[in-house]
Design goal:
This protein is α/β, with parallel strands linked by helices. The protein folds into four domains: 100 residues, no CATH class; 88 residues, OB fold (Dihydrolipoamide Acetyltransferase, E2P) (Beta Barrel), CATH 2.40.50.140; 193 residues, Rossmann fold (3-Layer(aba) Sandwich), CATH 3.40.50; 158 residues, P-loop containing nucleotide triphosphate hydrolases (Rossmann fold), CATH 3.40.50. 37% of the residues lie in helices and 18% in strands. It has 23 helices and 21 strands. The protein has a seven-stranded parallel beta sheet, sandwiched between helices. A six-stranded parallel beta sheet has the order 16-21-20-17-19-18, sandwiched between helices. A hairpin with a 2-residue loop joins strand 5 and strand 6. The longest helix is centred in the first third of the chain and has 26 residues. The two termini are 29 Å apart.
Length: 688
């Protein structure tokens, strides 16, 4: 029942240059042509008399060229006058033109021109209209003309030709049983494609161009359903792989909780139970633990690690930056060393001797918990018995990096370690339902008691002196402060304040304060020394790049200044703001911005100023940036949506989610056909 998807390279009439241009648009087969949908439409279905034209409207006129010349004042332009059957004149103006256009506009030529009408010096005119010569019997088009997304070297005429060919020669049959579409009364696949590529003249342009027509909705539903089917199938496939069944911890977790100076929140307890139950299963856990900045994900991860260790297995924690990995290592040492757990550190910056010692401990099983950076999935790292892989800030790692770490513990083709992914960037509900439908999701939805809300202030760069006063007061009262800059070295393109310059300037401004500097290009030992001094209170003001975005926990730091906040994304601003407010003192985050803000920057700053709820901020971020940018590296191997829109099509997504399980269970052959149509190449990537 497999659907036939011929490659375009097999079609002799398609030249190599055309094929290359189509591939730039992601079109590699007939199905790709069919699903390359118009951006907008132009109406060439009727001729408007020149006397009926209206300024600002797009129209098509027909007439004879009665005058044409190249004028040189006030600027060079090709000017032609078109006279229609009613004797009225319209000026056609071309500011950029070729000799071939001069020849095409010679007097006596019968022409059809399509363009926007505007008021000129001599009456109505069109600037750079689309023109084509016609005969008396040349018919007008019977459907609206589609305008497609394209690339340099690929004309609209060529795209229209080949998409029309695909409509006549491609497979427009249904892939799923009719009942799948009955609740929404959606039109057929064939009807939808024909009406989107060639709409009737009376079609509702608003519905078509805003993607709310039933035809667009049908294709959006098909795409969402394909994504759900793909993700749930991957989910089921992973559950067929074996994993160590780790019995609940009887001693270690109890001992850890007794030693803590705080009690777990009810949200932490709830997700710890979910993770603990997953680890007892004989198939790999694939769970995403999400919680806002400071919600306490690390202690929950430690409990999961202890369950693996108590069952005789190793656990690993991988973080995207050395600063964050170092924070995890120190915390785990503090919590687990008193329980006689051997915690080992591994990073790319270790010297050869230390690295060799760590590698040996990992390989012989002496290292029960390994904490590190990307170095954990390097080829020379061999685990004796990896039972649980924990990946923090998982969206910063590519699909192949996560897969590499999982394979470190795969003792055979049928056994794999459990995997826990953590994210402090909350994931909006629609993203969780779609792009994360292959995962089980746990949410820590409350902050520990004692966390103080952070006051957010928007301050224009011109008021920088007031900010300096605020920093001085905070440090004199015994608090500490961060000053965050977006670049390390000067960039002529962006001309932003740099960390190095700001460090020198702040040292000069505050001779009485101890000022430190940390950035990503410093050697690891230097960074560690600076962070240790800041944590110990020896440094009062820390100038930093966004390297401190995640994982830095200094309760005495109550003030943060962020330079050029308008240049940063919402999730980054929220993460940075989460570095303060970790102690009992009132905390503030000052967002310094340059005037002349773009609309997007203004919208971002308004959202971060008005909200401290990570989920609300993430939802707004998704609306501003779209899922592709929001997901970052996570998208490797994930079927990305081209037609559906998560915000607009939430109801369709919910219906697709409910229908997917039934189709997988009762109609697996239909599912194969549907996935081949919609995800023939994305399906080849097994997600992790």
């Amino acid at each position: 029942m497999a659907i036939n998807l011929p490659g375009l390279a097999d079609i002799k009439a398609i030249s190599k240059p055309l094929l290359a241009n189509l591939q730039k648009l992601g079109i590699v087969d007939v199905q790709g042509l069919l699903l390359h949908l118009p951006l907008r439409y132009v109406d060439e279905t009727h001729i408007t008399a020149i006397r009926d034209l209206r300024s600002g409207e797009q129209a098509q006129v027909e007439g004879e060229i009665v005058h044409a010349e190249v004028q040189y004042k006030p600027r060079k332009a090709l000017i032609a006058q078109l006279q229609d059957a009613g004797g009225q004149l319209l000026v056609l103006r071309f500011l950029h033109f070729y000799p071939s256009q001069i020849a095409a506009l010679k007097v006596g030529t019968k022409l059809r021109a399509l363009g926007e009408v505007r008021q000129g010096f001599f009456g109505y005119e069109m600037v750079h209209p689309q023109c084509k010569s016609v005969r008396d019997e040349t018919p007008v088009k019977e459907t609206l003309t589609p305008v497609y997304p394209t690339t340099a070297g690929l004309s609209q005429a060529s795209l229209r030709k080949w998409i029309s060919w695909a409509l006549n020669n491609g497979d427009l049959s249904e892939t799923l049983p009719a009942f799948a579409y009955e609740p929404q009364a959606l039109p057929s696949f064939a009807q939808s494609l024909k009406n989107l590529h060639h709409p009737a003249p009376e079609a509702d342009l608003y519905q078509l161009e805003d993607h709310v027509s039933p035809y667009w909705q049908r294709l959006a539903f098909d795409e969402l359903l394909a994504q759900q089917l793909s993700m749930r199938r991957h989910y089921a496939r992973r559950r067929s792989i074996g994993a160590p069944a780790l019995k609940p911890s009887k001693a270690l977790i109890t001992a850890l909780l007794r030693s803590l100076p705080f009690a777990l929140t009810s949200a932490q307890q709830k997700v710890a139970v979910e993770i603990g139950n997953d680890l007892t299963q004989n198939h790999p856990m694939q769970r995403l633990l999400q919680g806002d900045v400071g919600s306490g994900k690390t202690i929950v991860a430690a409990m999961g690690a202890l369950q693996a260790i108590e069952n005789g297995w190793q656990a690993a924690i991988m973080a995207p930056t050395e600063i964050l990995a170092e924070q995890h290592y120190k915390k785990m040492q503090d919590w687990l060393a008193p329980l006689n757990i051997k915690v080992t550190w591994l990073s790319g910056s270790q010297n050869k001797t230390d690295r060799a010692i760590s590698l040996e401990a990992i390989a012989d099983g002496t290292a029960q918990l390994v904490v590190g950076t990307h170095a954990l999935f390097q080829e020379q790292v061999v685990f004796a018995k990896l039972g649980l892989a924990i990946i923090d800030e998982q969206h910063r790692f590519g699909v192949h990096q996560r897969l590499s770490l999982r394979q470190k513990g795969q003792t055979s083709k049928t056994k794999a370690p459990h995997q826990l992914m953590m994210s402090a960037t909350p994931i909006p509900r629609t993203l969780s339902m779609s792009y994360y439908a292959d995962l089980d999701v746990s949410v820590i939805d409350e902050l520990p008691p004692g966390r103080t809300p952070v006051a957010t202030k928007l301050v224009a760069d011109a008021r920088r002196d007031e900010v300096l006063t605020r920093v001085r007061e905070a440090c004199e009262q015994g608090s500490q402060a961060y000053w965050v800059c977006p670049l390390i070295e000067e960039s002529e393109a962006l001309q932003l304040k740099t960390a190095n310059d700001t460090y020198a300037w702040l040292q000069e401004s505050f001779p009485e304060l101890r000022v430190g500097l940390v950035h990503g290009r410093m050697k690891t030992a230097e960074k560690q020394a600076v962070m240790a001094a800041f944590t110990a209170g020896e440094i009062q003001l820390l100038v930093a790049t966004t390297v401190i975005e995640v994982g830095v926990d200094v309760p005495n730091a109550s003030l943060m200044v962020i330079e050029h906040a308008e240049r940063m994304g919402l999730s980054q601003l929220h993460q940075l703001r989460g570095r303060v407010g970790r102690g009992a003192a009132k905390s503030a985050c000052i967002l310094l911005y340059q005037n002349k803000l773009s609309d997007t920057a203004r919208a971002r700053l308004k959202i971060i100023y008005e909200s401290s709820d990570g989920f609300e901020i993430a939802k707004a971020d998704l609306a501003l940036r779209g899922p592709g940018e929001f997901l970052g590296l996570r998208q490797s191997g994930v079927p990305m949506l081209k037609i559906a829109d998560l915000e607009r099509d939430t109801e369709l997504l919910e219906t697709a989610q409910g229908l997917a399980e039934q189709l997988l269970k009762e109609y697996p052959t239909y599912v194969d056909k549907h996935l081949e149509r919609w995800l023939s190449r994305a399906e080849e990537l097994v997600k992790v």
